[in-house]
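Posting here for the record, re: zinc ion.
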Amino acid sequence: MPSIYVYAPISGTTHSRFRAIPFTCPPDPVVCENSDYINNATGDYCNNCCHPSPYCSAPIDIGASGGAVLDFWGSAAVRSIVCSPTYGNVCADPSVGSPWDDGLAIEMWTGQNATGTKIGTLWYAHVASPYSGTVNTINGGVTYVGYVPSSLCGCRCYQGHHVHMEKCGNSVFNSAVGCTQSVVEDSTWIYRYDY
Ligand SMILES: [Zn+2]
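Prediction output follows.
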């Protein structure tokens, strides 16, 4: 079964960690907004406070500069991606608003123009000016799919500028990526997909 890797879309520092299996959120030590409604989280904020995964699983936050361009970086076998923005469905508190409450689904395909085999779906959340449509990659990369918000989030847990990622489907996370760790754009792998 072939595999591809998805790499960090931006260089920065992680502010959460993966959990290998769903775990029950413990009593909320820092009054994060999500611990009271997610019972089976797949990530946490490095303090046992649940990190929600509104789309699929294995969420991670990568801190980055506000307004920075978000790329997509996968293995060269990813020859096209389909970007589908969603609006207003990320945060537990809807008053957080756009762009923090917006997400971007990225479908990965082995052929150009969304042909061949569909490898799987990746999500980014908190994406400003998200791209919508199909893009062919260059060596597995697309150098613009949106921006890190230039504003700061009104949510409670991790409030700094960051991008949130999740994986869907037949995939695993990189257990070597932990809390407060530097990841490097197009170099540190975050997820592996088998297809
Ligand atoms: Zn997050």
